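Structural prep section.
Before we set up the soaks we want a predicted structure of the protein with zinc ion in place, mainly to decide which crystallisation condition to try first. Input record follows.
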Amino acid sequence: MKIICVGRNYVEHAKELNNKAPKDPVLFLKPDTAILLKKQPFFIPEFSNNVHHEVEILVKINRIGKHIDQKFAHKYYDEIGLGIDFTARDLQSQLKEKGLPWEKAKAFDGSAVIGNFVSKAKFANVNDINFSLKRNTETVQRGNTALMLWKIDTLIEYISKYFTLKIGDVIFTGTPSGVGKVFSDDILNGFLEEEEMFSIKVK
Ligand code: ZN
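Run finished without errors. Recording the tokens verbatim:
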């Protein structure tokens, strides 16, 4: 399986990192070795002093497809989840400055938290789902899929022009504003509407 991530999909987040809202979705990949194993803590890697949490809505692909029209994109996923795209922001800034690829900052071991999934039928409208992240007791990120620059079905159309989507692939759809540094002993809890989807200890 592969993980396809979308960058700068929420205007407020693009602004907080001084990025312009892009003309097209920004895409990058994470390998399967990036997945944080269930019930394991997240270890801050020694090569970064500034790892950020990015809470994101996840979409799990349930059939193979290429050049998917957005009209039919809804047939390619049944489940919505929540995860974290851990980002070594210090390293990413250096790479961005030099125009280099982001993988070392984005695709390292443990950088992809994939929480629980729920049936999309639970939601009246996938383009109106609230989600949030608590760091310890404080809610640090809040988002709603209505605020995405590119909605889920549009992303599937765009991504599948470049990458064949296969069963089990997961799309990380981008983070809303409020990203910030994680510290050792933090507990990160993610919520889709009111339901807790993951709880991660940072070490
Ligand atoms: Zn992200």
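Observations: Residues 3-201 form a domain with the Fumarylacetoacetate hydrolase; domain 2 fold (CATH 3.90.850.10).
Flagged for discussion at group meeting.
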